[in-house]
From TrEMBL:
It comes from Rhodonia placenta. This is F-box domain-containing protein. Residues 578-612 are annotated as: Disordered. Residues 53-104 form the F-box domain. SUPFAM superfamilies: F-box domain (SSF81383).
């Protein structure tokens, strides 16, 4: 075991594996890095805060020394020196106060601590005592065997080369092999005097490397002379280290004896008063008393308890009440979790049923009763799953909630108090025109659900009514639900520069692109040739999914822009009309084209390949590239034949891409 001994300005380390065995070394061979302390942020006090004055620093030095003479160890003096700068300058490195440290060492329990000759100020030894003489390698007396197995310690025997044997004289070493009886606390027995020398592996490797460098440099005599001075100091260091280790072992033994006696007293007193020992130790008053007496190696007596009995009882009552609240809160949270699981169980069982939000679901009568049951109630998850009564009551509560929600939403849509006896008229909430603006998840989380907080989406409602008029039906007609399904992709947006076909669901979303959306119904015979290719419904949602297959499909260069395709089709029509007007001139120039250069023929071939039925093939993108294209790409509007020379340019300006914007060519090559 290694002990970090900081004596004066020269850090010295010693180690041992048990009682009386020490490893000591000088700073030059085993330098110990300074202990790093975490920087603590200082809390700024308000300007009007009044700090309590420190009356102790106003005392004369003689009275302060008399008070500190009752300290049980140098650790108490060190604690006072760390309080502020005044005590630090008074007690640390001050020859006039050296007698205070000496008196503290002499009165230290269970035995006095000696001082090594030539040592620096006593604060170094006090700091060692305050740290408890903990090992930097083994961390425990019983960790010696594990240190050997972990190769933290190396045994030096006769197999070592002769030139390295002198190194042992000045590096940390273990002089005795010891065994610790792990079944009896603080029983240490020296079982043998070892013929081998055990050193720390890192120290040995460092010393060997240093010696090899000296051999190469050829300055061995000066090096050995310097190390001899360190070797001469080693016995003094060993003696002081043995003293500290002996004190440490006796201190541990006395600490455990005192701790056991105080715990026995605490247990008996708590049982006599009807408390538990844990509750008594948890109180701030008794906990402070217990640990302060243990640090001073003093036993707690009945006289220490009687003056603070009333305070202890009040603190224990507060602890018991806090425990009851904690148990109740954990039970309540568990029941809330069970209700949440049941809610998602109902939601996944039937996707078409209408359920309230989770906060509203908790407010239902039966769920509120289940959540507020007694803390000692059994698990409610079984009752929620298996109880027919709870299932019946829950269905009734959900039905009442749905009815209230329908009445409130009908009033929002402009039908307050709507009632009818006809079965051929849809409720306003069940109609296709029951549309409200969408809120994202964060906005929904901040708001409490209430039907009166909804607002009708006027633009979407007007677009749906316009579509239903084209289909020859109305929103209150139950047949309208089937009519929008049968229309397929025959709906065309007239407000777009180039009419795009789409189905009803895409039309509801698409109408928000225009200030005045207008839709028309395309004849069924012309549906497939309106823009060249059929629309693949659900393509955008599928490609924008989170699966690996969707991610792979987004990288394929098989997606074209229907807006550009429509523009190219119009350009082809205009070009065709212009070509018929000049057909005679074209016939006269055919001879010249046949005798043209090879480069002209090649370009003509490429131009032919780019055309399909007179329409140039659409440029293909990856899906993410297409999304960027429809947001920023400029579009040429060919309004007339003259527009070929003076085109009008505008942007697509589509922030949310839809199925009607994508032209997918699955037979194209992939990127």
């Amino acid at each position: 075991m290694e002990i970090d001994l900081r004596i004066g300005s020269q850090p010295v380390s010693s180690s041992e594996s048990g009682q009386g065995a020490v490893i000591a070394a000088c700073a030059s061979t085993a330098p110990v890095p300074p202990l790093a302390k975490k920087r603590r942020g200082k809390k700024k006090l308000p300007e009007d805060t009044m700090l309590m004055p420190c009356y102790l620093q106003d005392l004369p030095l003689e009275i302060l020394a008399e008070i500190l003479s009752y300290a049980s160890s140098p650790r108490d003096v060190l604690s006072l020196a760390r309080c502020n700068k005044f005590f630090c300058h008074t007690l640390v490195n001050n020859p006039d106060t050296a007698f205070i440290w000496r008196r503290a060492r002499e009165c230290c329990h269970p035995m006095a601590i000696g001082s090594r000759q030539g040592s620096a100020p006593d604060v170094a030894s006090a700091r060692i005592v305050a740290r408890g003489l903990k090992s930097r390698i083994i961390h425990s007396l019983r960790g010696y065997v594990f240190a050997i197995r972990g190769q933290n310690i190396r045994a030096i025997d006769s197999a070592v080369e002769d030139r390295y044997k002198d190194v042992v004289a000045w590096i940390p070493r273990l002089e005795q092999l010891v065994v610790v009886d792990i079944y009896a606390e603080f029983t240490f027995m020296i079982i043998s005097q070892s013929s081998r020398v055990c050193v720390r592996k890192t120290d040995w490797e460092q010393a060997v490397d240093e010696l090899n460098r000296v051999y190469i440099a050829g300055d061995l005599d000066a090096y050995l002379e310097e190390k001899q001075r360190l070797a001469d100091r080693l016995p003094v260091i060993m003696e002081h280290a043995n003293t500290l280790l002996t004190w440490r072992n006796n201190r541990l033994k006395s600490t455990n004896i005192t701790k056991k006696a105080n715990k026995d007293f605490t247990k008996s007193y708590a049982m006599r008063m009807g408390w538990s020992m844990y509750e008594l130790l948890q109180t701030q008053t008794y906990g402070t008393l217990f640990w302060s007496r243990l640090a001073a190696l003093e036993k707690i007596t009945k006289g220490d308890i009687e003056p603070i009995h009333a305070t202890l009882e009040a603190e224990i009552i507060a602890i018991q009440e806090h425990r009851k609240r904690s148990i109740a809160e954990r039970a309540y949270q568990s029941r809330r979790d069970d209700v949440e699981k049941h809610y998602y169980r109902l939601k996944s069982a039937d996707a078409n049923q209408v359920l309230p939000t989770l906060p509203e679901f908790r407010k239902l009568t039966v769920m509120k009763v289940m959540q507020e049951r007694a803390p000692d109630a059994t698990d409610i998850s079984k009752d929620l799953r298996n109880s027919p009564l709870i299932d019946k009551l829950l269905k009734e509560d959900l039905e009442r909630w749905r009815e209230g929600a329908r009445v409130g939403l009908a009033a929002v849509l402009g039908f307050p108090g709507w009632r009818t006896a006809s079965k051929k008229r849809l409720h306003p909430v069940d109609r296709l025109t029951a549309r409200c603006p969408h809120l994202d998840k964060k906005q929904r989380a901040r708001e409490e659900w209430n039907p009166h907080k909804f607002e009708p989406d006027t633009k979407v409602i007007q677009a749906i009514e316009q579509i239903l008029i084209r289909l020859g039906t109305t929103a209150e007609d139950p047949a309208s639900l089937d009519a929008v399904k049968d229309v397929g992709t025959r709906l065309a947006c007239v407000a777009c520069p180039h009419s795009l076909r789409m189905d009803f669901n895409n039309a509801v979303r698409h109408c928000k692109r225009h200030d005045q959306p207008r839709f028309d119904l395309v004849d069924e015979d012309l549906a497939e040739v309106a823009d060249g290719d059929a629309i693949e419904l659900g393509l955008v949602a599928e490609v924008m999914g989170k699966s690996k297959e969707a991610q792979k499909r987004r990288g394929l260069r098989i997606y074209g822009c229907r807006h550009c395709r429509a523009m190219q089709a119009m350009a082809a029509v205009v070009a065709s009309a212009s070509g018929e007007a000049n057909s005679q001139q074209t016939d006269n120039e055919q001879t010249d084209e046949q005798t043209g250069t090879a480069q002209t023929s090649t370009e003509a071939t490429k131009t032919t390949k780019r055309k399909k039925n007179g329409v140039p093939e659409a440029k293909l993108f990856s899906f993410n590239g297409l999304r960027s294209h429809v947001k920023e790409k400029c579009e040429v509007l060919l309004l007339s034949e003259e527009a070929l020379l003076t085109p009008h340019i505008r942007r697509h300006g589509i922030t949310e891409i839809g199925d009607e914007d994508v032209l997918c060519q699955k037979d194209s090559e992939t990127a």
